[in-house]
Amino acid sequence: MAKFTQEYKLQVAKRYINELVSYRDLANQVGVDDSVLRYWVMLVRHHGDQAFVFPYTNYPSAFKLRVIHFITEKNYSIREASAIFHIPDPCMVRRWKKKWEIAGEDALESKEKGPSTMTPNQKKKKIKDHSSNQSVEDMKKELEYLRMENAYLKKLKALVQEEPSPTKSKRK
Questions:
Q1: CA 72 to chain centre
Q2: Which of 50, 41, 28 is nearest to 80 (CA)?
Q3: Distance from C-alpha of 44 to C-alpha of 47, rounded to nearest angstrom
Q4: What is the pLDDT of residue 73?
Q5: Per-residue pLDDT, 169
């Protein structure tokens, strides 16, 4: 689907509001699904010229819960509730509602995303500790075993390539 600018979406939604045209006809002219156009129109009706200006935000769980209760108590659709609460994508609300239905309010809590709490020194130490678990003698034995295995496989491959296949016959 093509990415439309905020200005273009606003212009199309206002065109629907001001002109005598159906959702389907205008959506076909613009090249979007009529449900998308309906959402654009709902946003413009609820938020005017700021309908497509969405500040990036990490919604708190209390806000998510308020939206879900609004949908369930007032019997609004997910799409209309998204427009009323000025949420950029109704799919976000759909995911919130599904999580809430499955696991309750705790599922709406934001997961902390951020840098690792492990410092670079701890990472280096962890790597060193892992390698020091094997003694030098053990590593030498493993290396010798791997070299023998490699030599065996090379000889086997050479033998297989040298043998003529008994099932193949010459064509006449």
A1: 27
A2: 41
A3: 5
A4: 93
A5: 57
pLDDT tens-digit series, residues 111-135: 655 555 555 555 555 555 555 567 8
Can you tell me whether residue 3 is helix, strand or coil?
A: coil
pLDDT at 150: 84
| Residue-range domain boundaries for the chain | 1-53, 55-108, 135-163
Going from the C-alpha of 148 to that of each of 61, 134, 159, 166, the distances in angstroms are 60, 20, 17, 30
The span from the CA of 25 to the CA of 45, in Å, is 20
Distance CA 80, CA 41 (A): 10
- List the structure tokens of 80: 């209309």
Q: Give the separation between CA 107 and CA 109, rounded to whole angstroms.
A: 6
pLDDT of residue 122: 55
